[in-house]
Every structure is written in structure tokens, then in C-alpha cells.
Amino acid sequence: MSLRIRLLFCFCIMGLAPKGQGTQAGDISFTFNYDASFTTSAGSHLTAAQSDFAFVGTYISSLVKTDFTGNAVVEIDVSGSNDSSSGVLASAGGYTNGNDGFEKSFTQLLVQNNEKNTFSLPEAFSSINFDWNWGYGGSTTSTEIDFRYVLLHEMFHALGFESVIDASGASSYGNSYNDFDQYVKGWDGSKYVNLVDRDSSNIPTGVIANAANAVVDNAHPLLFDGPNVRAYLNAGAELYTPSIFEAGASISHYNYPGQLEYFQIGYGSKSFGFSGLDQAFLKDLGYTVVPEPGTCMLSVASLIILVGARRKS
Ligand SMILES: [Zn+2]
Asked: Cys bridge to 7: 17, 93, 94, 182, which one at CB 3.0-4.6 A?
């Protein structure tokens, strides 16, 4: 079995919600494996940074449940850097089997199917650039970047909010696509259609003729048209599809500035949490999501461009 590795570069206080009534959902938890580069790069911020990782893990655990009676432990390898020449705040990605199909990531398979990967790999990985002026512990000044908020953004990628469609308009891995990609629609010149064609068994068979244009059509941006997102918006969600393809940013973010899974984040404190739209994405990615009280509005200040790339194996 082949393996794909993906890496994305980028960046309301909740109560503990009860488990869904009548479901058999178990709990998820996160184990973050911090390597030496993380410890070294974090320096005096190590304790605060690790505390925020734990906070984000607990938050996700309060909302996202397993689809079976047991619990699941999601392992994430975490590294760090101190790179003053980089516009990248942080990155995250996941591992996926390289089969033909709209493949769920290791995180999705573990949480939804109780299926642990056989590669002795973590489900996902993330890296933090500690050269930025982070604000920890939910306390962020106007000259700092909200660390918890960026971690939640990255963990959303680790949960499966990511595409493997590249500038060609097709997968970088033949007919192996991400689960996310089955809901991507593109403008064919006159209407929106599935960007990726599939057969009666939902196995990808190629992409539309106009795919390379569709992924850079910011007049008719790609849409994520999963059933829960459509029910929430009464439309598909616009994806980030700038006119010049940005590997690691294009398609793997949505096109709503100031919201969690936009590709940029500004300085200053942000309202922490998954919005209703974010929760609809999680449901379309197959997750059992239990309600949380209230919703969050997110604000944005000056922007930092977060760029990216994908590492292949
Ligand atoms: Zn991102």
C-alpha cells in the first residue's frame, strides 16, 4: 500500500458539550509528540505553547466524537523553527493511503472508522515558526498573533480540510484524491460541475477539461458543495482560488476573510472556535459533531500572507 504525505503551510469561549443523544459516540483525544526542534525553537515559550496545544485538543474533543462506542487517540507529530525569512506562521498536514478514490486521511479513518494506520505513523503533523510574535493562552495584544487560533486552523487541516488538487486541476497522486475533493465543484465555462469526474462506485476517473482554468478562476471560485455546507449556506462554500495558483493555500482554504480557515490571519486577538460553517465542513468530512452553545464571529486586522507547499513521498 502506498502512502501519501501532505503538508500545508498557512496559520466565544466554548463550554463542554454533551454527547449526542442516542448516539454511541466515543471521545477523541490528542497526543502531541513534540520533537527537539520544537523544544529548542519554543525556548521560554515552551510551556505556554504546549498548554495551548492541549487547550485546542480539548476544545476539538468537546465537539468532535468518534463514530463508534470506543475512544480514539489522535497522534500528531509537532516540530518547530525560528525562521525570520519565512512568511509561514505554521503548517500542518496529514497522511493518507494512496489508493484510487476519495481517500479519507488517517485522522478521519481513526476517528470515524476505528481504523489505525498500519505504518506506525502518527495521524498528522504540524510545525510552528516561533520567530513570529505569538500571543499565548488566549491573551493576544494588537502586535501579537493569536497562537490558539492558528493552532485550531492547523488542526482543521489535520482533520481533513485539505485538497490534493494541484495547479493542473487534478490530483498530484494520479486518481488518488482526498475525501474533501469529492465535493469540489468548478466552473466549466457556463456552469458549476464536479471538478473531479467519478464512476458509479465514486472512484475518480479524471477531471473536467477546464480544470486547470477552474482552479485559478477567481471570478467563479471553486465551491465546496458538501450536503451540510449547502444546507448551512443554501449554497456551496467558496474556496480560495486566486488567479495564480498558490500551492498549499489554493483550494485548501475557504474564501471568507476573517474566518478560521482563510489562508491569512492578522495580528490581534481572535474569537476562538469552529463557526457554524466550520462545523458543517466537519460534518461533510464525516465527523460526528455535537452542539456547542452559541457561535463565534471572527474579526481580522492587518494581514500576514501565509504561503505554502506540499511535501511528497
Ligand atoms: Zn491553512
From this structure: 93
- How far, in Å, is the centroid of ligand 1 from the Cα of 23? 31
Query: Within a 10 A sphere around the Cβ of 287, how many other Cβ atoms?
Result: 23
How far is the centre of ligand 1, averaged over its atoms, from the C-alpha of 263 (Å)?
Answer: 5
Integer Rg of the chain from CA: 18
Cβ 150 vs Cβ 11: under 8 Å: yes
Give the CA count within 13 Å in the CB-facing half-sphere of 96. Answer: 31
Cell numbers representing residue 148 in the block = 490558539
Cα 78 from Cα 33, distance rounded (Å): 6
pLDDT tens-place string over residues 104-151 = 999 999 999 999 998 889 999 999 999 999 999 999 999 999 999 999
Q: CA–CA separation, 162 vs 288, rounded Å? A: 18
- Residue 61: how many CB atoms within 10 A of its CB? 17
Tell me the H-state helices in the chain: 36-42, 46-63, 106-113, 147-158, 211-214, 227-233, 276-284
Which candidate, 292, 195, 189, 295, places its Cα nearest to that of 236? 195
Distance from residue 22's CA to the centre of ligand 1 (Å): 34
In the reported structure, the alpha carbon of residue 278 is separated from the centroid of ligand 1 by a whole-number distance in angstroms of 13
157 C-alpha to ligand 1 centroid (Å):
7
Q: Fill in the amino acid letter for 203.
A: I
How many whole angstroms separate alpha carbon 146 and alpha carbon 272?
Answer: 9
**Is the CB of residue 103 less than 8 Å from the CB of residue 179?**
yes
Q: What is the mean pLDDT of residues 259-269?
A: 94
Q: Are 289 and 64 in contact (CB under 8 A)?
A: yes
